[in-house]
Design goal:
Blueprint: H1 3-32, H2 47-78, H3 83-92, H4 98-131, H5 139-170, H6 175-198, E1 205-207, H7 212-224, E2 231-234, E3 245-248, E4 255-259, H8 260-265, H9 268-283, H10 286-308, H11 312-316, H12 325-340, H13 344-365, H14 368-381, H15 390-396, H16 402-415
Parallel strand pairs: 2-4
Antiparallel strand pairs: 1-2, 3-4
Helix pairs in contact: 1-2, 1-15, 2-4, 3-4, 4-5, 4-12, 5-6, 6-10, 7-9, 9-13, 9-14, 13-16, 14-16
Length: 416
């Protein structure tokens, strides 16, 4: 057996085992605390809401485990089982130019993956989310979204993929540096275009009407020195009962967006505090820091691929007979998560750190007690568990656990 095959199987096995062990801890911990609301939330959260969040969390974990098993089996079939080689052989029979053949191989594999993931997505939307009262989607809307996503991937993704494969074939040994520069430029361009070009294809964005909420937000923006292209309400209720708020875009194209479900759930002062938190991410330069980290990791990843692409054992160890740029790119995209999985706690740590900093910013420019009450409502409305397992949350959570986050804000509220 190829040495790299053994390394790949070890990484995949250890990462999968760790994932299932953490999931088991999470389920056990949540169920253990299911019948009692934590002391910090006893006056704010009913037992029924707490138990709903526990059950929803457990059901999502179990569905995620099934999805992980399916993904594991399919990954092995694609690589060691010869699935990618089969796709290569099929596309070679089309007698297309090498560049088009490479694009076809990658597009075919990801189309098959997308189709095989549909049953889990359908179950999650129309069974799991429906069971807990969150689903507002319809089968027609669901499949329209699927087709639109595929169309966008074809219109935007395929030309980009063709360009990358051309660079890999034409530029020389430093193709990976040129590819990195193009991907970073493309990412910035899409971040700038997303609010006005992509997002409206899926949702309707309505300018916030004049009133108390708009006045509060405009005053908050003035205090923070933040400018945007507008404040919008998004019809998130078309698909889900979950609520959220975010700002999107770059430069002069920044937008503030509230889900309509969030506006219905929170008071004006609570919405102001939630937005202050989101603005904190911008003002504390978290967006730029995350973009810089992504750029560095992308550069390192592409440099590694630039080395692997010349090594026959990389292809042979993953079930591909002959080296090619398309095969190398496809194998790297599919296999690298088995190795990068172990970096997830580091990423999660810094994301949680950013959340604390954004909360601190919100406490300076809005009322901390209103952010607390708004967050508690969001935990209830989104059925987020208040009692996650510490190890699971340290590995997976991009936000601090509810109790820790609320305690941190209460200290800010007391000191102010």
């Amino acid at each position: 057996m190829n040495l790299f095959t053994i390394i790949f199987l070890l990484a995949l096995g250890i990462s999968t085992a760790l994932q299932f062990w953490l999931s088991k801890r999470q389920v056990s911990h949540v169920l253990q605390h299911r019948d009692q609301v934590p002391d910090a939330f006893r006056d704010r959260v009913t037992l029924d809401k707490h138990q709903k969040a526990a059950d929803y969390t457990v059901d999502k974990i179990r569905l995620g485990n099934i999805d992980a098993v399916i993904g594991l089996v399919f990954l092995l079939l694609l690589t060691l089982g010869g699935g990618i080689q089969l796709a290569i052989d099929f596309c070679n029979t089309l007698d297309w130019p090498p560049l088009m053949t490479g694009v076809a191989v990658i597009a075919l594999v990801f189309l098959v993956i997308h189709v095989l993931e549909l049953p889990i997505s359908i179950y999650q939307t129309f069974v799991l989310e429906e069971r807990y009262g969150f689903n507002r989607n319809t089968p027609l809307q669901f499949f329209k979204d699927q087709l639109l996503q595929l169309a966008l991937m074809a219109i935007i993704g395929l030309p980009l993929l063709a360009l990358i494969l051309w660079i890999m074939d034409s530029i020389g040994s430093y193709w990976w540096l040129w590819t990195w520069a193009i991907l970073m430029g493309f990412s910035l361009l899409m971040s700038w275009l997303f609010p006005t070009l992509i997002a409206p294809l899926f949702n309707k964005f309505t300018p916030l009407q004049d009133g108390e909420l708009k006045n509060r937000i405009q005053q908050l923006l003035a205090r923070c020195g933040f400018s945007s292209k507008g404040i919008f309400i998004m019809d998130g209720s078309r698909r889900s009962g979950h609520g959220n708020a975010y700002f999107t875009g770059l430069g002069s194209n920044k937008r503030i967006v509230f889900f309509d479900t969030l506006v219905e759930s929170l008071e004006a002062e609570e919405l102001e505090a939630v937005l202050a938190h989101e603005l904190g991410h911008f003002k504390r330069k978290h967006v730029l820091k995350m973009m810089a980290a992504t750029a560095v990791m992308s550069l390192i990843s592409l440099a590694i691929l630039g080395w692997l692409i010349e090594e026959p054992w990389f292809y042979q160890g993953l079930g591909v007979a002959e080296p090619s740029n398309a095969a190398a790119l496809l194998l790297f995209m599919l296999v690298s998560p088995a190795f990068t999985f172990f970096m997830q706690p580091v990423s999660a740590y810094f994301q949680r750190k950013f959340e604390f900093e954004a909360d601190d910013f919100a406490a300076l420019y809005a009322r901390a007690d209103k952010l607390i009450s708004g967050l508690v409502k969001l935990y209830q409305e989104n059925a987020a568990t208040l009692t996650p397992d510490p190890l699971y949350s340290a590995f997976h959570y991009s936000h601090p656990p509810a109790a820790i986050r609320i305690a941190h804000l209460q200290e800010k509220n007391t000191s102010s």
